[in-house]
Amino acid sequence: MKKGLLGSTALVAATALTVGAASAAEAPTYKLSGWMNFQAYFADRDALTAFAASNTTAFTTAGVADTASTNDMYFGVDDAELTLNVSGTADNGLEYGFKIEFEGSPGGGNVADEARIQLGGTWGTLQLGDEDGAEDTMNYGGENLLGATGGWDGDGDDMSVLATFIFPTIAGDTSDASKITYYSPRFSGFQVGASYAPNNHGGDRNPADDTLFQNYIGLGANYDGSFGDVSIKASAVYASASYEGNGVVQNVEDISAFSVGGIVGFGPVSVGANFTDNGESNTVVGANQERSYWNVAAGFETGPLYLSAGYIAHTFSTGAVDVEPSAISVTADYSVAPGFGVYAEYTGYDADSTPSADASVIIVGANVSF
């Protein structure tokens, strides 16, 4: 039923490509943008002995052999990006173009992170290629308000033993896998969207490389409006995928997950929250393992200064044991000049495990963008 609905949506969008208000054609033009940062990391971590778990399959509080606590410091260029956007308009009003995003860091090579064609008009927007899906782009939550690198949704996971648990991701998020996505026009603040990806690969892949899960579907609906000085954003998204195994013999649950969230702003202050239930997605059938998380955050902006703080808590349940790792983040951003800023953040990770695998991570950095 979902596949049929998605197919119908794509057909309507494709049919609409030939319909539009007559207008003078505009030859394609391009815009180049980009950014780069430099960061210093400081981390204080307990012994890396606990919480040998996966955020997609089973979990256990059994230890992983390691030694004493660690204190780490290093410098890094987390990322550098250049994004090329090309857009034009046909005689019939059809808007068309493409985007390609290059990411690179010294020693890491240069890669095309996102690349997609976009078609649009009064009927909505159709994206074809490697781009985030509706289950991600249409979702709101506290993570949207965190500054600096994103706190528990940012670069702190490079130094944390809890990286796979704290990152707020709905099961079935296809990230930049090759897909088709349709977004409706926004009516009275409301918008809907749908994505379909045959598998979780990006770029040009041989069908023999199909992932364990196939037929990813992402559905979303959100609202973005204001009432006087109060702005309101609210969202609900759903993601699913079927387990095909790809030759791997394992009895695994299909992916089925949902997320709801919102952000309320008043003047310089914004508050956001999100709840995501990944259920038994990608767990062994009959294991009764469920995963969910919730988060809340607030942001305050005054002149060139932006401050934020947030909290996230996960629950991993087997029916007999609950493990609840959590994290708290505080961030500060300061705009020194147009396109140049500095920032700092602190994130504390609590593994909720014995022995402890907690961590504290501080990141300070500077970025330049255009």
Order of secondary-structure elements: HEEEEEEHHEEEEEEEEEEEE
Query: What's the shape?
Result: globular
- Pairing-aware structural class of the strands and helices? mainly beta
CATH class: Mainly Beta
Task: Compute the number of helices.
Answer: 3
Task: Name the CATH superfamily assignment.
Answer: Porin
What name does CATH use for the topology?
Porin
Low-confidence parts, pLDDT < 50 over ≥5 residues? 1-22, 49-68
Architecture (CATH level 2) name: Beta Barrel
Radius of gyration: 22 Å
Query: How far apart are the first and last residues' alpha carbons, in Å?
Result: 45 Å
Number of strands: 18
Report the helical percentage. under 10%
How many domains make up the 3D coordinates? 1
Provide the β-strand percentage band. Answer: over 45%
**Main beta sheet, described?**
16 strands, antiparallel, barrel
Average pLDDT, to the nearest integer?
A: 83
Which strand order spans the largest sheet, edge to edge or round the barrel?
1-3-4-5-6-7-8-9-10-11-12-13-14-16-17-18
Give your account of this protein's structure.
By secondary structure, this protein is mostly beta strands. The protein has one domain: Porin, CATH 2.40.160. Helices cover 6% and strands 53% of the residues. It has three helices and 18 strands. The chain has helices at residues 2-16, 134-137, 163-166, and strands at 26-45, 70-76, 80-89, 95-105, 109-121, 124-130, 178-183, 190-197, 213-227, 230-243, 255-266, 269-279, 290-302, 305-317, 322-323, 326-337, 340-350, 359-369. It has a 16-stranded antiparallel barrel with strand order 1-3-4-5-6-7-8-9-10-11-12-13-14-16-17-18. Strand 13 (290-302) and strand 14 (305-317) form a beta hairpin. The longest helix has 15 residues, at 2-16. The model is unreliable at 1-22 and 49-68 (pLDDT under 50).
